[in-house]
Amino acid sequence: MIKNVPTHNDFYKTGRELLDLSWNMVAKLLVNLDEAEYYGIDADEVSEEYWSLAHRQLTTALAITQQGIEFLIKGRICEISPYLLISDSAAKWPSPYEGVAIDFSKFRTIDAQDLIRVHDTFSPVSFETEFVSKFNELRESRNVIMHSISESLDVQVAEVIESLLYMHSSLFPNESWANIRKKSLESSPNTELGSVDYISNEVCRELSIIMNLLSPAKVKQYFKIDKKMRPYLCPNCFYEANHDAGDFDYKLARLTSKEEGCSEVYCPVCDREYGVVRENCSDEGECPGNVISEVYTMCLTCGQE
User: What pLDDT was estimated at residue 51?
Assistant: First the structure.
């Protein structure tokens, strides 16, 4: 008998946590650089040296991303049967004759290089060629990172972000990564220290910086908004934000269509649509906005009630 057999949700939970850890490392580097101007530093002048010094953090983030993806694929396999994860011949398995149940963790599980093959052998739907190619590229990069001290592997910040977003969206096309990031911050240890009051501020700031790095096509692919359309405040994020920390001016929401009179905006952080009224802002002399939140009765251009 085998005990403590993992479920697919166990692997999914761990995989998402590792992706969030990788994202957190990269996001902090980007936010710190974004704050350079506040301290009187020209970010353009220090950026090359800054990213050079961040080399180890970027390679570590890439390795953690790969590890998280492996757990997510194991979750996919586990949905078919957790016993497909067991490697080695039966002769090498723990003995079933010692009178106690065998813990699943005692079994050697399949190597990363075999995950795709095992999944595609038993799953009715195989991974797409592009996914397999990117997974193998990441695995090879991770092997270089983990098994050598070479500095020759050039890892760019956008590479880590795009790898994470591509893999996650491929595995979970109906999930919003920004929303998962927000939920992760809501359950982090820092909430016990008061960070819960700043979660909307933090996640919106991260996403606004990262969206600026990505092409419009990538933003559309991963966050479901048209980067070229006029940006608006999300009424819910604005309401939840801590305004003692300064002006909340992160405009991540977009109208859901380009049609005149469109009456909904979509926020990638909330992964929700919110109704709006197309009326001119009451501060017509200063604000040209004409998108007013139905529920919060605020202008989504300037934030005025």
Answer: 86
